[in-house]
Amino acid sequence: MSTQNEFREEPGCEVEQDDPARSEAQIAAGQRAAVAPNSSTYGSDDAALKIGVYICRCGGNISDVVDVEQVAETVKLIPGVATAKVHTFVCSDPGQHTISDDILKENLDRVVVASCSPFLHEQTFRGAVARGGLNPYLYEHVNIREQASWAHKHDPAGATSKAIRMIAAAIGKLRHAVPLEQIKLPNHRRALVIGGGIAGLKAASDLAARGIRVLLVEKSGELGGHLNERGRVYPSEQDAAKLVAELAQRVNRDARIEVRLSSQIKAVSGFIGNFKVQVESESALPSEVTAGAIIVATGFRCYQPQENEFLYRMDPCVLTLPDFIQLMRSTPDSARHLTVNGRAVNNIAFLHCVGSRQLDGVHEPQTDGRLNTYCSRTCCTTILQQALAVRRRFNKTGVYSFYQDIRTYGRGEENYYIEASKAGVVFFRYNGEEPPKAEATPREHARRGALSITVKDTLTWNEELTVPVDLLVLGTGMIPGDIADLIEQMKLATGEDGFLQEVHPKLRPVEVAVNGVLLAGTAQGPMNIQETLSAAGAAAAKAAAMFAKEEVELNPFVAEVDQDACCGEAQCVTQCVYEGALRLVTREVNGELVERAEVNAGLCVGCGACVAVCPQRAIQLNGWRLDQFDAMVDGIADGVPGQNCAQELVQIG
Ligand SMILES: Cc1cc2nc3c(=O)[nH]c(=O)nc-3n(C[C@H](O)[C@H](O)[C@H](O)COP(=O)(O)OP(=O)(O)OC[C@H]3O[C@@H](n4cnc5c(N)ncnc54)[C@H](O)[C@@H]3O)c2cc1C
Which one of 216, 298, 474 would you pick to mutate in the ligand 1 pocket, going by the greatest count of ligand atoms within 8 A of its CB? Predict the structure, then answer.
């Protein structure tokens, strides 16, 4: 099933015409392969290749469904396979030793491991292959756990057949593989941290403690971010100002950290180890700095209710949660009650989930058309902390909490719920599809409260209750920061929720797709202080690990231009979305100046968009060349010799 090149002649470009004889041969080979598999199906004619295939039982995760012994016996029939072995855990030390020993004893020159996801163990097996003395890129990882045994657990025969085809594809790909080397680039041992909230402060001080120079850029005039607006913070009840002061002191005292307040990033170019960043400050001339890594710690914004959402901005007796925290902080200790709009507050309602956990058809989308369907994670505990504080300070004030679910998930946070209940806070539970209604109380009844909150209380079997209050506090949560410029400059990805998105929530939680850029804190999603500091510590550790080597080492799976085949049409350059990864350069060829595409290996992410548009096939991805794809398709379609896979496919089709 080999694919035929489609060469097109473009004006002004000398295109090598397809060799008709070659095309016919290719088509013929493809047709032959589709009917009767033979050794040519598997790629290179180099019959001398010795491939080792290692199939993992994964302690039953794979072998309970896939007949791994049959897989081993079958793939042995594929030309070039010198050995095929089954192991209970190939990732174990003995499993890895088997691979490296076989490479040495049997002179293997290619290795396939069929096991779990490459996310988990690709690097493990590359290491084992390298220890056997083989180039680690002459190795293919096949995921027969997630993609065969788990995906087809009710169809063992189908899962077994699929595993065989996947391994056949990997073998085909490996037959065309060439040894590759890691890309090594110079590494500037300086980090840029964007954002001087607690995430940025923690990341900067952790990096400096490891001897790394840091430039910390904060757009406002002070360090600390949103913690500057808080009083005592849960669960420790520490004074937020003291927490910020301690972190800011560490940063300000460290000669390795340069802080630029009232400053912003104007442009970012370059790549891991070599980012060039233009910084503009209110008080200084713009400057360009070089940084090896960038930590984005730009935080969040507080949700602002829409005009008239629960009477917000229509009635002075409706405040957001951050506004309420300010009210509590500014009310003197000697006061006997809170005062809002010149009126004593005798009863307060706290309404959870305003601007969070929004539902289509129930809530108005934001101006950008988005609904905030996520939980802001910090509002429930903050509301309970504030409700408890009100009851403790003003014990005559009635406090009512209207919630969908109480989410006090962190250590010590559930105590706020327990203590608030004990202290007399009254709870009403509503269904998310029917949020409570807030109405201004008619003037003649205003003595009982300026507002009435009506709820269908699911705790009392949907009884409709109306509670008069003097103050309604909207439990507003977090929304993504206003960082569209940074997202554009650094080509960062955002999730559906609009927050910055990591590569993998579990395995690479603080990394983004752009090498050398890391996330810290609530720029990535709602987090409390503890989580923010953990994430910032992780980002700093990751950046420090990058700086541990003199050079940055990158996987070699980047695009490469065949300078002889390139005719400088630049379709690849137009298609590339990674700024600077591909460009046209002028070269002298046979005494003439011509334009040719050139790849910047530091910026290329190996997405392959350029490969798809080059009519000359002059640009290819190392490790994923087009002949390797052809061979993989052949392997999947043809399976192994002796099995009538082509017919099987026709029947499935
Ligand atoms: C109402 C409320 C109460 C809370 N109470 C608690 C509590 O009691 N306990 C608790 O554990 N958690 C609490 N939290 C959560 C806590 O506020 C966050 O965990 C913490 O503030 C996150 O810090 P950060 O550094 O990630 O973000 P931020 O505090 O938002 O800091 C980000 C910083 O980056 C700067 N910045 C933004 N964009 C740029 C840019 N382009 N260039 C340069 N600088 C930029 C900002 O000016 C800011 O200084 C609460 C949250 C809310 C909403």
Answer: 298
Short-list 76, 81, 79, CA closest to 37 = 79
The span from the CA of 215 to the CA of 218, in Å, is 10
Ligand 1 site, residue 358, Cβ cutoff 6 A: no
Give the pLDDT confidence score for residue 39 in this predicted structure: 39
Atom of ligand 1 nearest to the CA of 224: 49
Mean pLDDT, range 11-17, rounded to an integer: 36
Instruction: Please state whether the predicted TM-score (pTM) of the whole model is above 0.70.
Output: yes
Check pocket membership of 481 for ligand 1, CB cut-off 6 A. Answer: yes
Ligand 1: which of 260, 529, 530, 534 to mutate, most ligand atoms within 8 Å of CB?
529
For the Cβ of 231 lying below 6 angstroms from any atom of ligand 1, the answer is: no
Protein residue with least CA distance to atom 53, ligand 1: 477
**pLDDT of 146-162, one tens digit each?**
999 999 999 999 999 99
With the most atoms of ligand 1 within 8 angstroms of its CB, the residue from 230, 239, 277, 321 to mutate is 230
CB contact set of 53 (below 8 Å; sequence gap of 6+) = 72, 75, 76, 81, 83, 84, 85, 111, 112, 113, 114, 167, 171
Whether 597 has a pLDDT exceeding 50, the answer reads yes
- pLDDT band (50, 70, 90) for residue 644: low
Asked whether residue 649 carries a pLDDT value surpassing 90, the answer given is: no
Are 1 and 633 contacting, i.e. CB atoms less than 8 angstroms apart? yes
* 203 Cα to the center of ligand 1, angstroms: 14
- Please, which pLDDT band fits residue 652 given cuts at 50, 70 and 90? very low
Q: Which pLDDT band holds residue 618 (cuts at 50, 70, 90)?
A: very high
List the single range of 3-7, 12-16, 281-285, 564-568 with lowest mean pLDDT: 3-7
List beta partners, residue 440.
451
DSSP 192-207: EEE--BHHHHHHHHHH
Task: Give the Cα separation of 140 and 118 in Å (integer).
Answer: 9
Length of the chain: 653
Neighbours of 9 (CB within 10 A): 10
Evaluate if residue 27 carries a pLDDT over 50: no
Q: Is the CB of 220 under 6 A from ligand 1?
A: yes
Closest to 583 measured CA to CA, from 593, 591, 574, 573? 573
Q: Which residues contact 445 (CB under 8 A, 6 or more apart)?
A: 468
With a 6 Å cutoff on the Cβ, whether 500 touches ligand 1 is no
Q: Is 240 in the pocket of ligand 1 (CB under 6 A)?
A: no
Q: What is the mean pLDDT of residues 38-63?
A: 76
Q: Are 104 and 45 within 8 A, CB to CB?
A: no
d(CA 468, CA 452): 4
Atom of ligand 1 at shortest distance to CA of 325?
A: 1
Residue closest via CA to ligand 1's atom 38 equals 298
355 lines ligand 1 (CB under 6 A): no
Domains and CATH numbers, the chain: 190-299+481-552 (3.50.50.60), 303-477 (3.50.50.60)
Q: Helix crossing, 645-652 with 626-638: angle to 10°?
A: 80
Distance 227 CA to ligand 1 centre (A): 6
As a whole number of angstroms, the distance between CA 382 and CA 251 comes to 28
Distance 246 CA to ligand 1 centre (A): 16
Q: Does ligand 1 have an atom closer than 6 angstroms to the CB of 302?
A: yes
| 3-state SS class at 281 | strand
